Amino acid sequence: MTRLLDVENLTLQFDTDEGRITAVDNVSFTLEAGEVMGLVGESGSGKSVTAKSLMMLNPGNAHYSDETKITLHLDGKPIDIMGLRGNEMQIVRGGAISMIFQEPMASFAPAITIGDQMVEQLLIHTSMNAKKCKEVSIEMLDRVGISDASLRFKQFAFELSGGMRQRAMIAMALSTKPKLLIADEPTTALDVTIQAQVIDLMKDLVTEFGMGIVFITHDLGVIAQTADTVAVMYLGRLVEQGTVRDVIRNPAHPYTQGLIAALPDLDKLDVPLSPIPGDIPSPLERPPGCVFNTRCSQVVGPACTTVIPTFTEVSDGHTAACHLYTQNQSGGAAT
Amino acid sequence: MSDKPLISARDLSVHYPISGGTLFGPKPVVRAVEGVNIDIEKGSFFGLVGESGSGKTTLGRALLRAAPITRGSIDYDDGEVQYDLPSIDDKTLKEYRKRAQLIFQDPYAALSPRMTVRDIIAEPLEVMGLTNSREETDARVREIAGKCRLNLEHLRRFPHAFSGGQRQRISISRALVSGPQFIVADESVAALDVSIQADVLNLLKEIQQDMGLTFLFISHDLSVVAHVCDHVAVMYLGRLVETAPTRELFAAPRHPYTKALMSAIPSLDPDDRGKAQKLEGEIPSPTNPPPGCKFQTRCPYAIDICRKDEPKLESSGTAHEVACHRWKELMEDHALEDA
User: Fold this and answer.
1) Distance CA B320, CA B224 (A)
2) B38: contact with A, CB 8 A cutoff
3) What is the pLDDT of residues B208-256, one digit of tens each?
4) Chain A residues with CB inside 8 Å of B269's CB?
């Protein structure tokens, strides 16, 4: 495996009318080429903001900390994303990194045909001429399972159904052959039967193109079906990381455990649903210590409300940031 | 449960006219709900599932008399009053509104940002003239808010200060404050996070049991429906394709669409990948539904008769009803495969 992406100490704050809020707090992870990493979290956990940081897509009131370091390894050459200025950004935006959004209707320009939008980005990011760009675009539309691709090429976003639009979005994102694909809730707006189709399509494409994917979702079922590794986020911080089997079968962090217990399971209809008590705190009132301490049922002591837990290995390659595991260790090793 | 269902609809259809068509020809219509027969027992938690465009929201609204009813009958009978819903006048409709309420999907859009929580919950009481004094209104608001586990000190705040789960509890309070018998909950947990969703589901269930209410719970999420409902109806393209007590439906689904829906739920088991039975294509447009069985365009088992005749909901002597020409045959085949 070759390293594709290093994110180190990503900290991001926004200036708002109500003060400066921390959206992402000291998040670090890595991604190999051909690997699918699931980034799970509820609304407000900072998962979308983290993903947008990889392409520097956050608005002007965003402040990255000085320690933040994002490195994309492109053909063996490291690119420091934080250091890119102006036009340099084009190498990564839409070229080496592509993004699929949740709501495809809002992501396509309504008054420009699907085809023109696809050709436009190919003209910017590749050296192909317009005719070749059109051929490649139609080929990609066909590849993602859109019938009558040459007809759809001339249509507008509103003429396509929801599932079709999401397929077109995927075709567009992949036509430049990106090395890294960021998929932000790509199946959330779709019906389950269509969601199953899109998940299948994405899995095929990963195998075919060999890119790395950061797959953002709140749905653990979707993660179980698509991802190789999982990172769980809560209130701007990562709380657990590991392979998909480890995290879903043996969740270590109380938050992950709570999330899994709260899911309705068709095989356990007799077991009442167990919600995580309380509400997610506002990012303006982030609890001190472990951010989950206000809702945690396994608080181990005063450390939970005062000391930020570091990542501790619970099994091989499976880490959690929780005082349940840091207690026995002196210091605790951070990843 | 009493013998007579609270709501009983026969051959219920809702058509919406759309623009287009020729000058003298028939006006094109969207057949959002077509020939639905449904009985909702008093005190039940009735689930209605389907994909977007299946007509589940329209059916829910038709039962509330909030959608134009093209054809068919709906009888409402809660033991105190009886209404023949399609023909009631405006005055009676106002009476019916006290007895039948709706909880919306999006708690962010459903609450006015300019009204305090107290005013939002009190509004139905004031509009319907159910209380005589401000004190009485306040007492009633506090009682309901307490039942919905809202912090009573928060009643003077505005909705923006609340999280999604708390907002949904405000919406629920507002729906309950007029003392209804029948509640339609339209995707009421779809916009909520998983950890909060379980809490709201438990609350709905608790309220339903405590107050003896009848719920029509509309959702696209089968696993949620399986957990809270005691009876489920599956909808596809404006028709009911299967209806059964929850346990029975999930233990032995009969319609190929129900089976496909259940198998499309992403499994939490990472080693269970790719085992789902995949449906090809998408739900057809309700302006131009296919002939015969509406599911035939996507059904892996469709044969000639499915393309010609529309199957009717039929039962085998139990409460489990299915609209499929081949269900018996398919059940036997599956039994053989499993053996």
Assistant:
1) 20
2) no
3) 999 999 999 999 889 899 999 999 999 999 999 999 999 999 999 999 9
4) 224, 248
Place of tokens 């999604």: B164
B2 within domain boundaries: no
pLDDT of A27-69, one tens digit each?
Answer: 999 999 889 999 998 888 899 899 999 988 888 888 999 999 9
| Whether the Cβ atoms of residue B52 and residue B238 lie closer than 8 Å to each other | no
Q: Which residues of A touch B267 (CB under 8 A)?
A: 221, 224-225
- The enclosing H or E element of A8 equals strand A3-16
Instruction: Check residue A328 and give its pLDDT.
Output: 57
Distance, in Å, from the CA atom of A329 to the CA atom of B317, rounded to the nearest integer, reads: 65
Measured CA to CA in angstroms, residue A25 lies from A281, A284, A290 at distances of 15, 13, 12
Whether residue B24 has pLDDT greater than 80: no
Per-residue pLDDT tens over the stretch B155-209: 999 998 888 888 999 999 999 999 999 999 999 888 888 888 899 999 999 999 9
* Cα–Cα dist B306/B302, whole Å: 6
- The verdict on A207 touching B (C-beta cutoff 8 Å) is no
Q: What is the DSSP letter of B325?
A: T
Domains of chain A are: 1-96+182-287 (3.40.50.300), 105-177 (no CATH)
Residue B317, Cβ density class (10 Å: 0-12 exposed, 13-18 middle, ≥19 buried): exposed
The one-letter amino acid code at A310 reads: T
List, in sequence order, every beta strand (DSSP E) within chain B. Answer: 7-17, 29-40, 45-49, 71-77, 82-84, 100-103, 182-186, 214-219, 231-236, 239-245, 314-315, 321-322
> Best of A266, A267, A284 to disrupt the B interface by mutation (most B CBs within 10 Å)?
A266
- The yes-or-no verdict on residue B47 having pLDDT over 50 is yes
pLDDT tens digits, one per residue of A123-141: 988 889 999 999 999 998 9
Hey, is A172 helix, strand or coil? helix
- Each as own residue / partner, the long-range contacts of residues B312-315 (CB below 8 Å, 24 or more positions apart, any chain) are B313/B37, B313/B240, B313/B241, B313/B243
Q: Which amino acid is at A66?
A: D
What residues of chain B, 241 to 300, have a C-beta less than 8 Å from chain A? 246-247, 250, 260-262, 264-274, 276, 278-280, 282-283
Domain holding B191, by residue range, is 7-338
CATH of the domain at B279: 3.40.50.300
**Cα atoms in the 13 Å half-sphere on the side-chain side of A256:** 27
* Sign, CA torsion B310/B262/B265/A197: negative
Adjacency order of strands within the sheet including A212-217: A97-100, A180-184, A212-217, A36-40, A229-234, A237-243, A318-321, A311-315
Q: Does pLDDT of A294 surpass 70?
A: yes
Mean pLDDT of chain A: 88
